[in-house]
Amino acid sequence: MTADLTDQPNRTVVVRTVIDWFHRTQRDLPWRAPDIGAWPIMVSEFMLQQTPVARVLQPWQQWLERWPTPAALAAAPSGDAVRAWGRLGYPRRALRLHAAAVAITEQHGGQVPSDLAELKSLPGVGDYTAAAIASFAYGKRHVVLDTNVRRVLARIESGIAHPPAAPSKAEVAMAELWLPRRQARAAVWAAASMELGAVICSARAPLCQECPVRRHCRWHALGKPDHEGPPRVGQTYEGTDRQCRGRILAVLRSSDVAVDRDELMATWPDLQQATRALASLVADGLAVETGPDLFTLPS
Description:
CATH architecture of the largest domain: Orthogonal Bundle
Number of helices: 15
Number of domains: 2
Radius of gyration: 22 Å
CATH class of the largest domain: Mainly Alpha
CATH topology of the largest domain: Endonuclease III, domain 1
């Protein structure tokens, strides 16, 4: 049985089916535990940005053992947050999470706010992260559009392999139509559609035969046409400034004292690139020059 290409998919049926599938098969992730609290969920959302779940599990656990509340993190030097971030990548997230913890402690009594506007006012919290925290931590009804959800909706409703690079107003409005009216159910749909995109409706190798709603999917009914938009180029890492920054930052993380510039430059074969990478770390607040040619993590 295939989807009716003349009509929109039956959103109510699809939502119900995906939620039922989610309840049966969802991954046992620690930030989904009942009554886990808003702070652990917020930490997970920061760590999961552009980082696979498998790489986040242990750092997330260690982070919360060390800083179980926003106030605990806020009381620590920001450099400790950068050091604890380890090899998760994109270490500015650590500084932003620390800054958000300070704001939560000083402006919200140490409690992660539930209001969308208040969440968006926190450092490092954009539209997606705010909606995700409000939805997953507080059961609010918001459009939660990560890459997985966008891909699921693009395939089911629009019949295309991949959504555009950035969500448009029309895409957000379309996603709003999929939200159940009841807040609690809308929050479950947000998690369930995200899970479907992560484990079944993946970008490169979708498991269509295992998809609970494939008979409602326009993309599947059309024969899974290839992507017709701009070429989708994967991120490179080897030899990039990102890799160079990571090498330098690893040396700073491993030292309790200031590190000489020459020692940092020795981590990379291209002196010009290493110099540029160190300057960018200083500009981002991830490294601090404490003396002539001496550098540490921020205090």
